[in-house]
Amino acid sequence: MLLRQGFTVSLRRLLVLLTAFGLLPLALLGVWGLHLVGNYQQREQERYLLDLARALSSAVDAELDGAASALEAMARTPAMADGDLRQVYEIARMQAASQPEWLAVILTDDKGAVLFRTNAAFGGPPGVIADPPSLQRAIDTREPLAGRVVIGKGGRAAFPVRVPVTDNAGRQYVLSAVIQPGRMLRVLERQKVPANSVIGIMDSSGAIVARSKGQQRLVGGLPSPSLVALMRGAGQEAVAPTTTLEGAQVVTGFSRTRFGWKVAIGVPPSALGPLQGIVLYAAGLAASLLACAVLATLLSNRIVRAFRSLQQGGAALGAGLPVSVPPSRISEIDDTGSALMAAAGLRDAHEAERSRLLDSLERALADSRSAAKVKDEFLAVLGHELRNPLSPIVASLDLMDLRNEAGSQRERTILRRQANHLKRLVDDLLDVSRITSGKLRIERRPLNLADLVRHVTASFPGVQLDAGAPHELWVHGDESRLTQVLSNLLSNAARFGHKTTRVTLAAENGQARLAVIDDGVGMDQAMLERVFEPFFQAPQPLARHTGGLGLGLAIVRRIVELHGGSVSAHSEGAGKGSRFEVLLPLGAGATAAPDPAPLAMAGQLAVLVVDDNLDAAESTAAVLAHLGHAVRVAGTAVAAVGEVRRQAPDVAILDIGLPDMDGYALATVLRREVPQLRLVALTGYGQRADVTQALGAGFDLHLTKPASLEDLQRALAPAV
Questions:
Q1: Domain(s) of CATH 3.30.450.20: residues in the chain
Q2: Separation of CA 473 from chain center
Q3: Residue 326 — left, alpha, or beta (φ > 0 → left; ψ -120 to 50 → alpha)?
Q4: H/E element, 104
Q5: Backbone φ and ψ of 719, nearest 5°
Q6: Do 587 and 474 form a contact (C-beta atoms < 8 A)?
Q7: What superfamily does domain 18-279 belong to in CATH?
Q8: Burial of 713 (0-12, 13-18, 19+ CB in 10 A)
Q9: How many Å apart are CA 355 and CA 344, to the nearest integer?
């Protein structure tokens, strides 16, 4: 309990003498002055570093220009003009011998083939081209350039400088000088920079060509991550704090050269030295502090004792203990003590409320996690349950196709089209779930996009197509996902187009431009802005056919973005058709590979089909029997084991979701019974994790329901 005794004195009166003494004005003046000094120092440092970086950039450009000029001088010789390559070889050898850092001079034709290199006899083996991409750029652009630093087989680093050449007969060549990074290191050594600075020259890919510290160890590697981030995010030049590869904190300025290289110089913040004026501000502030300290000493005892009592009360408040503050002659401290007492009461009430809120938050988080888990489980089960009835439908259609009954041709075509439509809806629903959770992945490899366009358009049912594509156009992409992109765009055109859908493919500005153009209902501006949103549907009065979940175009956009490209929609308005354009970065073509061998045709095999869905099992068995195989069916794992023990099959096709034992455990049992048995998983669970789990459980192949006739033939094909 806080009790008042005697008279009280205002705390303001006790501290007014300190304030009048001038501490506050001097402190503000010092802060203001230091702020000005800091701004000036920062500006000077940035200007200083940028000037150094620009000078180094000019020096690097001059060195590279010198190498390019030497090559251009060779290109202007009469021997080069007449195409006398042996004489050019002799001139190049003399030039390379006169340059200590030049490892070789190489002449290539316009196809990139090596015609000679000065470090080998004329007509000798061509050797390996260092940095092929830069050679291709020189061939394509016909402009001098500097390539990337490359580490050779012997551990020796070098970079090429390339100059395009054309002789009098119009033949095109590229002269390249292979230069050691030591040449650039001497450029750094000639610069007048602070002794404790770190200077680096990086090629167009960001790899270190020369560095003032650790040259032999670091050449060809990458600079520190912070410097990489600075160079990637900035424009032509910039200044920012970074960390060196040695872990030192520096302020770095960098600049880009005309050849696309980068020059960076890092200086410790202290390397610029103290600025005048800091000492003066510090001295004035110290004098004020000293004077105030002398006066404060006379008053401190009373104030310190009072504040100690408040500290004890505050500690008790924080610890949840009762608060008791002894009396004081300072009225503000007495008021603070009363406030502490009131705060103790509020603390107890707030703690109780906080506990209730935390309990509520924990329950909400648990509910959210549970809902997310339920959603994932629901989508997995939804895909499984929707694919299960599709499996006997598709198998029955395959069986009818094999029988080739002419009277049901039209009905089979309709059923096949609708079954494919339902399968695409299921796949779209699962794909959009992967997109929202960030789990959609692509496997990129060299891909001839022109072949993909021809194959998809040739096999797309129910649409009149006019497709135009070059012989080849290579990108770096996932074939199945890009097939899905084109299929979704064609499906969209089929729903909203009238007659003919045009598909065009061309290379433009380093990108592949794929366009799908229909002559249908078109779109207004509001629809164009939302057409790629998930679940967005065109107004039904405009649609020619109902159907679809509004997911196809959203999936198209995400797949294209994962490939580093973009997709856009265009229309001149209602009734004027629509055009969807996909832009993808061009990539290098794949090396020629032998045509894949066709699947070996299996003879008559003993096949066991295990599925608790009787329709699915019997329809699959009927298709396999029509193909000439001896097929048995089991609806449970126990029945399957009994069938295997009665007569071992050659191939077992297992469902995963069996009533008495899951397919993974059954695969282990069957593998133990018949080690050479070929095991195939045929299930409605088709996510990447399901495929990995199936292969890890011993299955030779994983198929997702509904399985096509080709899938079943692949399941019976002998292992290779």
A1: 18-279
A2: 24
A3: beta
A4: strand 102-109
A5: -65, 145
A6: yes
A7: PAS domain (3.30.450.20)
A8: middle
A9: 17
Q: How far apart are CA 70 and CA 109, in angstroms?
A: 19
- CA-nearest of 376, 373, 394 to 685 is 376
Residue 601 CB partners (closer than 8 Å, separation 6+): none
Name the DSSP letter for residue 257. Answer: -
C-alpha 333/C-alpha 310 separation (Å) is 8
H helices then E strands: how many in the chain? 20, 23
Q: Where in the chain is the domain with CATH 3.40.50.2300?
A: 606-716
- Residue 248: how many CB atoms within 10 A of its CB? 14
Three-class SS state of 538? coil
Q: In this structure, are residues 214 and 232 in contact, taking their beta carbons and an 8 Å threshold?
A: no
> Using CA atoms, how far apart are residues 506 and 180, in angstroms rounded to an integer?
41
Residue 155, sorted as left (phi over 0), alpha (psi -120 to 50) or beta, turns out to be left
Report which of 278, 258, 259 is spatially closest to residue 40, judged by C-alpha positions.
Answer: 278
Q: What CA–CA distance (Å, rounded) separates 393 from 619?
A: 8
Rounded distance between C-alpha atoms, residue 220 and residue 130, angstroms: 13
What is the secondary structure of 622-672 as a DSSP string? HHHHHTT-EEEEESSHHHHHHHHHHS--SEEEE-S--SSS-HHHHHHHHHH
The residues facing 578 across adjacent strands are 518
Q: What are phi and psi of 145, to 5 degrees?
A: -155, 165
Distance, CA of 515 to CA of 550 (rounded, Å): 20
Task: State the Cα–Cα distance between residues 637 and 617, nearest whole angstrom.
Answer: 13
Per-residue pLDDT tens digits for 103-152: 889 999 989 899 999 988 888 888 788 889 988 998 999 999 998 998 88
Helical pair 688-696 and 663-673, crossing angle rounded to 10 deg: 20
Instruction: Measure the CA–CA gap between 412 and 395, rounded to whole angstroms.
Output: 12
CA distance 517 to 466: 10
DSSP conformational letter for 220: T
Up-side HSE of residue 224: CA atoms within 13 Å toward CB?
A: 21
Q: Count of CB atoms within 10 A of residue 178's CB? A: 24
pLDDT tens for 171-195 read: 999 999 999 898 888 888 887 777 7
Q: Give ∠ CA 706-708-714 in degrees, rounded to 5.
A: 120
Q: What is the pLDDT of residues 540-550, one digit of tens each?
A: 544 444 455 66
As a residue count, the chain comes to 720
The closest alpha carbon to 264, from 200, 209, 205, 204, belongs to 200
Each residue's pLDDT tens digit, 214-267: 888 888 889 999 988 888 877 888 888 999 988 889 888 888 988 889 999 988
How much of the chain is in helix, strand and coil states, percent to nearest 5? 50, 20, 30
Name which of 160, 177, 202, 215 is nearest 99 in CA terms. Answer: 177
**Residue 567 to residue 576: CA distance in whole angstroms:** 20
CATH code for the structural domain at 606-716: 3.40.50.2300
DSSP 574: T
Between 552-562 and 409-437, two packed helices, what is the crossing angle to 10 degrees?
A: 60
What homologous superfamily does CATH list for 441-585? Answer: Histidine kinase-like ATPase, C-terminal domain (3.30.565.10)
User: Which has the closest alpha carbon to 557: 566, 547, 544?
Assistant: 566
Main-chain dihedrals φ then ψ at residue 661, nearest 5 degrees: -160, 135
